[in-house]
Amino acid sequence: MNLTRRALVKGGAGAVAAGTLAGCLDDVGTANAELDAGYAAFFTLRDWTQQVSGDAIDFEDPVGTGEAGHGWQPSGDLTRDIADAGAFVYLDTPEFSWAQDVAATLEADYDTVAVIDGLADLDADDLLDWEHEVDAGDHDHDHDAENESHEEHDHDDHDHGDEDGHDDHDHDPSSIDPHVWLDPVLAQDIVDTIATGLADADPDNAETYEDNADAYIEELDALDQTFEELIDAADRRVAVFAGHDSFTYLQERYGFEIHTPTGVSPQEQPSQSAISETIDLIDEEGIDTILYGPFEAPDGAYPQLVETILDDSQATDAKALTHLSGTLAEWEDEEWGYRKQMEEINLPALREAVGAQ
Predict the structure, then answer these.
(1) Does domain 230-353 have CATH number 3.40.50.1980?
(2) This prediction's pTM
């Protein structure tokens, strides 16, 4: 779905809901004439949208601290709150089905609500399937081409495509890995889309959104170069993650592999043979530091799988690697957004895991 400002359906249509979470909108007043508040569907989107909007719009993340954005379910009043605020930024993917439902209700039932899909302008080839196999030996990252592409971007000429924004999509939507935000290059395109959507919704501040997006895209480009340099300096192109693999986009971008005994599903329990294979890999590759998901250990203790691997392998240390769909209280206290969490958590963890000291 692209940015839409559809007329309110008359004759009691305010009671139409998209699923039980949408609630009833028939007693919600007309949206604010000035766009000064909004919602973004999870931590990273909220951070990017706030970077673009600056002081013009105050965006809120409905997902609580310590919770991951995908798989989350809201309360029944959230659609009403978003409608009152006037803007909603989300990713149109089944992993955020609640956000798809909210967006559908807003588009059908409410006028002057800006609904912005961050994926709207990505090419079909940019999106990876859950079962995508990364070839760590096939790495051809052209920074000059990437930089030229983003330096020439123009928000006014940004083509949103057809009404649905995905007419060239040849993926089964349910098979798409949604963690596209972990790729700092594709992140630049999503930030660009957010800026264009906000400018369309609030033309008076269009120049502000464009300037802020340009500045933040420069930061994301610098982050991309840091990742490139890290992997180029690595002793090995493989790391081990004791949890479900959310990092395929990162691996695909920089040409390295994150091995995990559990696969992509958070509910999957690793088999003993998969754990044994992982331990063998650690010992063969001389891996000293393994990675794990911090949302599985919010109190600072290692998850049980990490403890098992440390006990039975030659690895001696473990570092958190965050998927950035949420944030933890200590990071929130530090006011670490997407870029700072990449720099303070993910980059140091990967540096140790692949031996790029």
Answers:
(1) yes
(2) 0.83
